[in-house]
UniProtKB/TrEMBL annotation:
Keywords: Coiled coil, Cytoplasm, Ribonucleoprotein, Ribosomal protein, Translation regulation. It is found in: Cytoplasm. Belongs to the HPF/YfiA ribosome-associated protein family. Long HPF subfamily. The keyword Ribosomal protein applies. NCBIfam families: yfiA. One of its GO terms (biological process) is negative regulation of translational elongation. Gene3D superfamilies: Ribosome hibernation promotion factor-like, Sigma 54 modulation/S30EA ribosomal protein, C-terminal domain. This is Ribosome hibernation promoting factor. PANTHER family: 30S RIBOSOMAL PROTEIN (PTHR33231:SF1). GO terms for cellular component: cytosolic small ribosomal subunit. Interacts with 100S ribosomes. Required for dimerization of active 70S ribosomes into 100S ribosomes in stationary phase; 100S ribosomes are translationally inactive and sometimes present during exponential growth. It comes from Kaistia soli DSM 19436. Residues 129-182 form the Sigma 54 modulation/S30EA ribosomal protein C-terminal domain.
Amino acid sequence: MTLRISGKHIEISDAYRTHVEGRVGAVVEKYFDGGFSGRVVLERDGAGYRVDCALHLDSGLDLQAEGRGHEIYPTFEQAAERIEKQMRRYKRRLKDHHHDSRVVPDADANYVVLAATPDEDEELASDYNPMVIAEETKSLRTLSVSGAVMAMDLADAQVVVFRHAGHGGVNVVYRRRDGNIGWIDPAAIAKGDSVSL
């Protein structure tokens, strides 16, 4: 277990650090047998506090939760309860039960963050080009579609790009504006299968 507990412009007491380590350790032990690493960051949020908790399990899954409140202990408990809820929801999948002995290594893919586009009612300048804010390389994991949806839920992300376990092609799952999940499979599009977004 490697858990980094820090505060942004806040001093973390030993009692708080011990409480966080004990609670996170108990939650993970309850639902997962392997090791994990993660971080818990406490920061001021207006008149209250905000806790951001991110865990990475040795099985490859990432969990993310946030808590907000006026006191530091209940704020952390809110984030810990969300992590526990995610682990309870996916407890069968948290254990790495691969009956297939072949291991597919993760691939690296470039990841680019662009500046936000103007709102729909704003006019775009004729020479408008979005500015690249960040560019880095991220690991492209091999997952099933349901595994990618689970990874997106656990990480509380809007989009997950992954290598499809069935055919090896790059796929995308994303959250739609209506709350549903979208799936883009370029291999199916290339074959002429109908795909609705």
